[in-house]
Design a protein that fits this description.
alpha/beta; Aspartate Aminotransferase, domain 1; 413 residues; globular; four-stranded antiparallel β-sheet; 16 strands; binds pyridoxal-5'-phosphate; seven-stranded mixed β-sheet; Aspartate Aminotransferase, domain 2; single chain; 17% strand
């Protein structure tokens, strides 16, 4: 087979299914009004975007840009090596120490380990802990990085239906494997729903299992002080293996695990995505310390409150606005987080609606099966503290204007 011919055919198939993905090029900092160059076109635009993970609007914060510059001035540009061979620097160590203080109230004898990305953290943690005498019980809607980590691990993997605690309990009860890990997202990426953490922890305790929770969407955002799902759900347990990421609420990049120090020491010895990669530039770790300052200070409080107000406003106003449209199939999924799913149902209608919003200057991504269950294609609205009430009003008005056109054109009467 000729590889290039083969791949061209596969790409043409993606085109035919309208599944081909293209990148925009951002020419300004990440804000809801970022300037973008369209793929392959000369045109630039400044749409109102509801697609970023920058939930607290920190990605473009001047204090973090300044801290990054200060870190670079102090430590230089690159780390020069992997953490175990020369690349581990005072900024990385200080960050781990600070995070250990954050999670000490939740995990006894806690230690932390800084990874370059959340994807790498999940791969490294699941492969290092998921030995052949272990079983990983994973929620079917877990993030791709947890799915890939489970695939790479030597452990058996049992996937339980999303959020189904009875099914999970049944699987835990019948398992005779020596080591059990429950593996879950805290906030699920496509519906914005929150895992039943107290029930999961109770099951872990009851069945002598460990609870690995990926809090990518919760770190910095959930909880009174931004400690994420641990604070929000008031989790206190030696069994908790907490993963936070810095590319979303914290406005930067990187990830960490917080767990009992024996577990963290094992990860330091065995997590391949920690060991066999260049340490993140120390300047990033230095800037992350500044991000933690913001998150735990008055500014973090204000930004979390602003985001929560946006969530509450949209949950109140959008369903009412949609209900006023006769026969409109759109509905807003119930979500208390920044991820707000506007479920359309039909694939073509969802794409058409996203395209119409795009033409009207709003970026709201369409998500289709197999990423979400068949018949639940949706617009995935991501809210940020950087949005204004006026931005949200514009979103609701645009949905009210365009939804009827799309459903009339593409849906059976
Ligand atoms: C974004 C995300 C990740 C990946 O984190 P990165 O730091 O971007 O690699 C992992 N898990 C979940 C649930 C995520 O949403």
């Amino acid at each position: 087979m000729n590889l290039l011919v083969h791949l061209d055919q596969q790409l043409a198939l993606l085109d035919a299914l309208a599944l081909r993905r293209r990148r925009h090029v951002a020419t300004t900092a990440c804000t809801p009004h970022q300037t973008l160059a369209a793929p392959g076109a000369e045109t630039v635009s400044t749409p109102l975007a509801f697609c970023s993970n920058d939930y607290l609007g920190l990605a473009a914060h001047p204090a973090l840009a300044a801290a990054l510059a200060e870190g670079a001035a102090r430590y230089g540009a690159g780390s020069g090596g992997s953490h175990l061979i020369g690349g581990h620097c005072a900024a990385h160590a200080a960050l781990e120490q600070r995070l250990a203080q954050w999670y000490a109230p939740y995990i006894p004898e806690v230690a932390t380990l800084f990874f370059s990305t959340g994807y790498m953290a999940n791969l490294g943690i699941l492969t290092a802990l998921g030995s052949s005498d272990a079983v990983l019980f994973t929620d079917k809607l877990n993030h791709a990085s947890l799915i890939d980590g489970a695939r790479l691990a030597d452990a058996q993997v049992e996937r339980y239906p999303h959020g189904n605690m009875d099914n999970l309990a049944m699987r835990l009860a019948r398992s005779t494997v020596a080591l059990k890990f429950i593996v879950t997202d805290s906030v699920f990426s496509m519906d914005g729903d929150i895992a039943p953490m107290q029930e999961l922890l109770a099951l872990a305790q009851q069945h002598d299992a460990w609870l690995v929770v990926d809090d990518a969407h919760g770190f910095g955002v959930l909880g009174r002080h931004g400690r994420g799902i641990a604070e929000y759900a008031d989790l206190h347990s030696e069994r908790l293996i907490y993963i936070g990421t810095f590319g979303k609420g914290a406005g930067l990049s990187g990830a960490f695990v917080a767990a009992h120090r024996t577990i963290v020491e094992w990860l330091l010895q065995r997590a391949r995505t920690y060991i066999f990669t260049t340490a993140t530039p120390p300047a990033v770790a230095h800037a992350l310390l500044a991000s933690l300052d913001l998150l735990e200070g008055a500014e973090g409080d204000a930004r979390r409150a602003a985001l929560q107000r946006h969530v509450a406003w949209l949950q109140e106003r959008l369903p009412a606005a949609l209900a006023s449209l006769p026969g409109c199939p759109l509905r807003l999924g119930a979500s208390q987080t920044a991820i707000q799913p506007v479920i359309v149902g039909d694939n073509a209608a969802t794409l058409a609606l996203s395209a119409r919003l795009d033409a009207a200057g709003l970026r709201v991504p369409a998500i289709r099966p197999p990423t979400v269950p068949a018949g639940t294609a949706r617009l995935r609205v991501s809210l940020s503290a950087a949005h204004t009430r006026a931005d949200l009003e514009r979103l609701v008005a645009a949905l009210v204007e365009h939804a009827p056109q799309v459903s009339a054109a593409t849906l059976p009467a």
